[in-house]
Amino acid sequence: xxxxxxxxxxxxxxxxxxxxxxxxxxxxxxxxxxxxxxxxxxxxxxxxxxxxxxxxxxxxxxxxxxxxxxxxxxxxxxxxxxxxxxxxxxxxxxxxxxxxxxxxxxxxxxxxxxxxxxxxxxxxxxxxxxxxxxxxxxxxxxxxxxxxxxxxxxxxxxxxxxxxxxxxxxxxxxxxxxxxxxxxxxxxxxxxxxxxxxxxxxxxxxxxxxxxxxxxxxxxxxxxxxxxxxxxxxxxxxxxxxxxxxxxxxxxxxxxxxxxxxxxxxxxxxxxxxxxxx
Length: 278
Prior knowledge:
Blueprint: H1 2-37, E1 44-47, H2 51-61, E2 67-73, H3 79-90, E3 99-103, H4 112-118, H5 121-126, H6 139-150, E4 155-160, E5 167-174, E6 179-183, E7 198-203, H7 206-219, H8 224-242, E8 251-254, H9 259-275
Parallel strand pairs: 2-6, 2-7, 3-6, 7-8
Antiparallel strand pairs: 1-8, 4-5
């Protein structure tokens, strides 16, 4: 009976201590968010009511848990920029195993033969082919890899060439980490979003997306009619597959903020989680 009492007493004080730490984390993160709101271009446009509390609880009560953060948005909205600058904030902590990145773009299916047969991107698009639907990406393989990483396994992601449309299965080795960032057009679509711990949507006005998209298309060998045809498809498929995920996102972030500001605010968030004793 005494032993049972001792365990119950330990659990009580342990839970009480956990709640105090959770409250401290929530207060610190909410302060960062309140300061962000005052910016001319805030990073966070919307956050779900329970997100901050959920993150604090997971950090404190399940220290070994992997955070899988899914980041989506329209093509050229700024997903990669957000992830890359979040990484720059992460790497200020020299600890191994802090983050791993899985990019949806690496999982495009090999269509190099289709491009060769058509002779050009313009002729390929005339056949009705689209790079901008979920069918163009091997989402099943990507999900398998994400689940494996969450379970502590090392995987090898493919590597895709946007000029030749070749997929190289023997791409980059990815190791398990505390934070797994996955970004791409369809990471919050049905069938894959259920494994995400945090769902993020990057919102950017269409006129900005269009300007960025054409600049990137030129770098990938698409200009003129071929670029126009693909962008029309990009806009149509975004309406069907991507924009609806805005509604189910835990956080909506601003695709217009500067890279430096992304680094600054994410660094403050990581520092808050890192420095609180728990």
